[in-house]
């Protein structure tokens, strides 16, 4: 007899809504997630699910079935430093902090899936690992969890993640094949010259002039050196130097961001940024230091993994409610760290409902989630897990 995961999820919707609203009212940031972590641990203990702490405030739990295969489900836990301006009973009670990206819903969905899957663990032909990740909005707790070994003992064969999406109606999901999210590399360039009077530039070495050449030249990496069919962005976000109109400063600092859609392009743009900057500065008698940070990698959807999620979802919400997303996002997502280590699938769970006011953009102070999406997310996760292990 086929298991009806959607009915099971809807039967516990009131419990899940209570969990989500409690987390929403008490948002925590980055790795400082003590209250959220304790709530998750208490839930897991009550369900008899074993777990260990990971990445400080994160959790790795496991449901042991009957088989060798293991699949992972991931949810992020942290909120954002934004003031909640919603007028509702469950608005944030913490000044300047808000779940403005739906991580409260993600955590709730994973807890719901954990409860259902644990209740049928004797029927599972393998194991389920549950990853509750801290610091998704900052440095990415996923890479710390992976370094600590959450993908081993037992070895995880596949990982699935989701993200609520206000731009997709509740009852639908959005999927993309191939690259889903860009890689990110923030950078800082310090260009050093020699200060002088503005009226006598010949007595100094002008870092402002050097910076202007560098900024223009860096744009040509994207427009002239990457294939025009492949997306990439190099943005200069700030430039600082000088104290007065008639003084040539000693130093100028430039900072910005690189976003690329392929690992090979990521490495190429970083290499060319260094070569171009150093070449220009040296030719103009200056010197420079360049710091390129290794932020989130590209998020790749494995073809077989995302196909299986689509197949599972079609039995929960029907095929016509599955939207294929044509373009990847230039935004970043720390689930990418999992996708770089194991075949993975990441999809967007529709949570938009204009009549309920849940169509406001994420990372905004009116953001909210249509809670009717929660049992749908739970059911799809459970079905995807069950089918993969079967």
From TrEMBL:
Q: Where is the Peptidase M20 dimerisation domain?
A: 187-278
Could you tell me which InterPro entries the record lists for this protein?
Amidohydrolase, Bact_exopeptidase_dim_dom, Peptidase_M20, Peptidase_M20_dimer
Q: Which SUPFAM superfamilies match?
A: Bacterial exopeptidase dimerisation domain, Zn-dependent exopeptidases
What NCBIfam families is this protein classified in? amidohydrolases
The identity of this protein, by name, is Amidohydrolase
